[in-house]
Amino acid sequence: MADKIKLFVNGEEVEVEAGKNLIDAVGAVGIEIPHLCYHPALGADGNCRMCLVGIEDGRPPLVPACKTPAQEGMKVLLDAEHIKKIQHDVMEFELINHPIDCPVCDQAGECKLQDYYMSCDQKPSRMTVPQVTKNKKMDFGGGVIHDQERCVVCGRCVRFLRQITKTGELGIINRTDDARVNIFPGRPIDNRYGINVVDLCPVGAMTSSDFRFKQRVWFLKKASGVCHGCSKGCSITIDHNKEKNKDDIIYRFRPRFNGQVNGYFICDEGRLSYKSENENRLTAAFIGKVEREISDVLTAAKKELEMSKKAVFLISPDASLEQMVAVKALAAKLGATLSGYSDGYIKKGDGDDYLIQDDKAANRQGLLLLGIDTTKESFEKAVSEADLFVNFASDLSRSYEQDALTKLLTGKKTIVCATHESAFNGQATITIPVRSYSEYSGSVINCDNILQRFEKAVTKNNELLDICEVAAEFGCPLQTPAEAYAELQQVIGMLKEYQPATIPAEGLNLNDSEAANVTA
Amino acid sequence: MEVRILSAKFDVKNSNQLKTALKHGAYENLDKLFAMQPAEVIEEVKKSGLRGRGGAGFPAGVKWGFLPKDTGKPVYLTVNSDESEPATFKDRYILVKDPHMLIEGIIICSYAIGSNDTYIYIRGEYTTQVKVLQEAIDEAYKAGYLGEKVAGHDYRVDVTVHRGAGAYVCGEETALLESIEGKKGQPRSKPPFPAVAGLYGCPTIINNVQSIASLPFIMKEGADAYKAYGTEKSPGTHLFGISGHVEKPGMYELPLGLPLLEVIDKVAGGVWKGRKLKGVIPGGSSTPVLLPEEAATTTLDYESMAEHKTMFGSGGIVVLDETVNIVELVQNLINFYHHESCGQCTPCREGLGWMKKITQKILKGEGSMADVDLLRELCDNIEMKTVCVLSAACTMPVRSYLDKFRHEFEAYVTENEPSVAEATEE
Lengths: 520, 426
Fold this sequence. Notes:
Strand order of the largest sheet of chain B: 3-2-1-4
Number of domains of chain B: 3
Largest sheet of chain B: 4 strands, parallel
Radius of gyration of chain B: 23 Å
Distance between the termini of chain A: 32 Å
Largest interface: A-B, 34 and 31 residues
Structural class of chain B: alpha/beta
Shape of chain B: globular
CATH architecture of the largest domain in chain B: 3-Layer(aba) Sandwich
Number of helices of chain A: 14
Number of strands of chain B: 8
Order of helices and strands of chain B: HHHHEHHEHEHEHHHEEHEHHEHHHHHH
Number of domains of chain A: 4
Number of helices of chain B: 20
CATH superfamily of the largest domain in chain B: NADH-ubiquinone oxidoreductase 51kDa subunit
Strand content of chain A: 15-25%
CATH class of the largest domain in chain A: Alpha Beta
Number of strands of chain A: 23
Distance between the termini of chain B: 56 Å
CATH topology of the largest domain in chain A: Rossmann fold
CATH class of the largest domain in chain B: Alpha Beta
Structural class of chain A: alpha+beta
Oligomer: heterodimer
Helix content of chain B: 40-55%
CATH topology of the largest domain in chain B: Rossmann fold
CATH architecture of the largest domain in chain A: 3-Layer(aba) Sandwich
């Protein structure tokens, strides 16, 4: 990996990565240098002046750590009284014109001003003259609400829209303490990544119109997830909470840093896709159109499977690798044809050259790796020859009009395992509600062949079955998650070195492994 | 006391026109210049001891030496004509009275540093100056002193005039570069310094108008002739703008090193109306004030100013008579620097506004002793914590007024509580 260098922080020797600035270099070994304007994805700007440190080698008495490369033997002074005083002084300047409206601010609990007040300031205000007043509750478009008074004019949002999306909707107008972030008149934030400015904002100046006022952030439980919005599989944090007497629901997705997938950001569509995990979910089991106990429905389904002479299984391209191997093993045991047909998940031309992909399926690479056929011809041929069609959560409405599907399935028995309500469910002989991706743990492989593991985030009051459990009920040889994972290790050689819990947070790049190219 | 080196042609009618300028020796040095090696020119300027006339007083020849060699990138010369420091009015005379002296200086500097392209960044409010300068440049092009072959020699010099839009901070050299590049005028963090990565990322030398305009004399008469004026460490002459409470305010060219009070008395006619001297601002509004007893031992050179804990600055001398209300002066000063803060760095952006409001409060008679102390403390908390020195340009003089005239601030505070008599009068 990167070269290591040794330098001194407050007289103590630390070993850090070469080629980084002081904030990142010593930050990586747990020494925080306070900063507001610097962000590793946006580079150093040097305007907040919070990161001023002393270097004991005859340089100017103070240097911004964000603009100072870490160098061998450097003696960095952080805990000296005069450095601490600067941090306190800068905090005082940041706060004199700040409304200090934490009780009604969405950022409270994850606000750098709050954190640094506690760590660097902790003094009562000396502001006895009128504060600067600016505009509040400004709708910047794109789901972003701006409060100019809370803003510390660090310019992260401006730099994001200039450097990353290159759309440049925001600028800083005016000078002096009248400087403020604004849009150009009549030109709101209009790009597919705009809400990232809410995460980037170190204070409560940028809030999400979708999330604001819904939850205090300290109540939210956080789980490491993978966005299933497209085949990029961006790393996300799933913030969810189960309020008293209510169900566990998701309040927001936030990007989780992953250097080899999405960096620091996610697209707005993916970010807001948390809603479909909460809404329109299928929660009841049906035989025909009659709601029945899940145990009765499973018994009925097993009977159908036993009676069937020739069955076709369809697995969702969103399913986890574990679910795929389980369904595959079940199909092999029952002599059923397995298809991963899901052309409708691909929206040609929708992707861009950044994160968004044409393919809206989270684990198509998994289908390919496991050798599951995805062609339309084989799928339709198999269906036409079969008497039973079992759908493991694939959204056929993406590929077929209702009439075409009805025609395709005429005269067949159908068992549908579904996560969401759909007009198609009603036509099924048997309908089984199953968990969606925020409710189980598993692994998926993204479009760049990177395998990521995600945690189970949400536990519903009415816990549904996972597809693996349904497959097990149907007699799958892989009865437990451990058995499914062991099977995966047979297929993906790289996994042999890992247990589910030890797969690195940034995932495994299967391109690095020859085994990845071996199909089962 | 006055000398005529830079201002030699200032009294000549139509001295801005090429015909007149040529009669008085303009562009006479070019054959001599191109016969020399660039390094020899730099050596001569170093020898002359010419110091940057923008305010900081950095030796010009040494600055040129910071240019990296053989980068494969063009070298730019940028002439800082943003002259915006309150009380400073020297470059404007050169721009209007003798623009060809500046152009000749540009040619000399360009050849020395290996530059073919010069940008003159001129203060936006200088409408007459920009017009006269541009006319002179056009004349110089037409006569072949600028362009592909300077005066028939195989060297190209092109000059572009770039007008500012009224921001004081654009006189800061990196904000100036940002402004030329079409961006918001905000100073850059240094390093890298402009000599390494300046305009459009290329090596750039930025010199003040007066520094560049001093070069033709040095070329013609030699470094020793230049050093004959001034002191050992502050050689040469300077255009001093003397304003404020004097009988004869104006621009005077003087050798460096003269006693400050003598200049005020003999050159500018002394404090007006027979009043007593209260203080002297020695080099533009951002330089710390001198009390009369300090001024008595001060001479007009970089060293003496530093000894008196102030700065030579831009040569803009402001004389304050006994009637001056220091708190009002400070209010005026802070208003200016607050207004001109680019708003980039937190301490300057938020701090100067705070200082402004505290001073207002004191002036209104609503301040307390704690406010005076706070104002003084804020000077320390803001100064040198920012990318550029604009904040220091405010806090250094304000600190000097607070330290030297604290009783005037306290007078406002002690008058805080209106007396019973005043209260009943209303």
